[in-house]
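Run log, item B.
One chain of 353 residues. Sequence copied directly from the ordering sheet:
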Amino acid sequence: MMEKLAALAEKYDELTALVSDPAVIANQSEWQKHCKARSDMEDVVLAYREFLAVEQAIAEAEAMIADKSDPELAELAAEELEQSRDRRAELEQQIQLLLLPRDPNDNKNVILEIRAGTGGDEAALFAADLYRMYMHYAEKRHWRMELMDANFTDIGGLKEIVLLIEGKGAYSRLKFESGVHRVQRVPETESSGRIHTSAATVAVLPEAEEVDVEIGPNDIRIDLFCATGPGGQCVNTTQSAVRITHLPTGIVVSCQDEKSQIKNKAKGMRVLRARVLEKMQEEAAGEEAAARKSMVGSGDRSERIRTYNFPERRVTDHRIGLTLHRLEMILQGELDEIIDALITSDQAARLKN
């Protein structure tokens, strides 16, 4: 491992020199490529260099302790030795994590899809709660959220909604949200006070660039229709809404948020590329890939990655056994504690493997 780290540090220095070279700066595409490569390895190189400095400090402290001529200095060295050894252990763990293979999608934007599952109107209302939760979380992270498509119910619920989330680390933090989310609460329409269980599905897809997925004009069929709003009310009388069908896979995407047909088509193509890329990746990976159907489940109440229990003000993530009794704050977008725990669990599993 140390040889690999030394080679990385040497490469880092080479890139540092390149990004300062006027000839390289003049070629912006080349300069940006080198800057990204340098940035990608910066954390691990800095940790490695601190590790070397701590190793040196440990050697010096051990030498002072071995020299019996100055007891007071030896006592100070012993304290420093203990602190340095603790720091070395921390850095070893940090470097191991930094050397784990990165998900190539981690820096990509996100196509977030939320759909009501089992539970009728109550499931649609819960889907709307999840939408607001992710909207608040995106605001806290200073991410940009853009509506791509939505299908509302008469009472303010959501049958489905598709969103684009743009921002640093969006996919790396949201990818663990994919799956069935279950809610347990008394619906407003329930007169007897009986607790109902409903569900909604969440799918988190990395946005695909045109270079990731090539979709030719003959691969798609575009249908136009009038956009509609909540309750079926007509939003406009022109055929600005767009439905795009990817003929090779049968994937269908619709977008009606914009009044412009051109803008709706552009948005729809972004969603379509993400879904086609996901299908390509799961086919390439075979059984090892998390296929879309297994990722989001059927929306049945018995399938779940997380439960939101309103009577107990409890949120439980069943994958890692984490339970938090602050439901209201989580629904206001305070998701970092859950997401950080999921990331830590994932890292631990990958280190073990």
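Observations after the first pass:
- The chain is about 50% helix and 20% strand.
- The two ends are 17 Å apart (CA to CA).
Flagged for discussion on Thursday.
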